[in-house]
Amino acid sequence: MNIKTSLMAATMLGFAAAAPANAVDLEVTHWWTSGGEAAAVAEIANAFNEQTEHSWVDGAIAGSGGTARPIVISRILGGDPMAATQFNHGRQAEELVEAGLMLDLTELAEAEGWRDIVHPVSLLDSCTVDGRVYCVPINIHSWQWIWLSHAAYEAAGVDVPSNWDEFVSAAPALEAADIIPLAMGQQPWQSNGAFGVIQIAIGGQDLWNSINIDKDADAARSEQMAAVFQAAANARALSARSTVQDWNQATALVINGQAGGQIMGDWAQGEFQVAGQTAGEDYSCLPGLGVNEVISTGGDAFYFPVIDDPDVREAQLELASLMLSREVQVAFNLKKGSLPVRGDVDLEAANDCMRKGLAILEAGNIMLSGDQVLDADTQTQLEDLFVEFWNDTSYSPEEAQERYAQIIEQAR
Fold this sequence. Notes:
The chain contains 21 helices and 13 strands. By secondary structure, it is of the alpha/beta class. It has two domains: 3-140 and 298-353, D-Maltodextrin-Binding Protein, domain 2 (3-Layer(aba) Sandwich), CATH 3.40.190; 145-296 and 366-410, D-Maltodextrin-Binding Protein, domain 2. The protein is globular.
């Protein structure tokens, strides 16, 4: 459905005013500030400016989601809401929705058939509270990847690994060539995310489900999880010389051949594209660390804070509709390195790594993301744990595992 048809549907539903809406400046906040991210979000902004009478006012917040979310939430609670804002799929905006501070998009979603076009439908479920839709899922981002520099392995005189065991085995050759085996930034969300990827690769999806979905503390204390924590300790040692802060700085180490690999979500792919590198030639990507090829259905969604202005509300609905249009889904996700949430778009231009992700998605080898099953407080506790574990070599795997089990015991 194109934007004009969508607006007709919204008008029939009573969203639009009787007279044509006035053009408004629509402030949109997000944390997409790296090179690849900025190129991707520009695709949405340009489409909004060109296809509507309104103007996108960019409210980029430097840093990460952990930096941006408290600012966004503070503004909304303080009575100074932006018109649209990014959150991740899941429960991050749950309390704002329950407080009645987010626009209900249900009638628009029903008019445009979002439940029929969003794939997997669990993404829309993550936007739904008490049967009502409050956000627009815009992409599928998966954490379950390791990105490998062909130049680094060539310089070390070893083959590019095809799985995690080979990656670990090749680390001494990289060290001997003064190359960091594993690039890692210092932000808490990076440490927590990398651990989750290792958990899936080493422990498997059933173990992850028992802990994260069922909140099974006994599973968190199991021998299977002990092996996961030992693997994480090994990864910690491989990243000891990586002192950068931001995730894209760690990606740059891989791009420049200064590091062998990086455990990072598929948004890293946007950085390789901006650098002019080609998947399969300059770098490789291993879903599930080449062990368990599964992708999580996390990613980004946009919420629209309630603003008592019918013109703003109409512009919000136009943007919500546009974000799910075929053309925006293709243009945005090709730049972002993520997968579209629509299952009916043409991605002929997809590169080698994106095609791997699409094949896994098509095969149904998917899982929920931590954001979809753990509340914000639990996620913060896990981030605090893993950034401490990753940066303090005196923190033993056994101690970290027990603290992890205690957090899961208290999770909701």
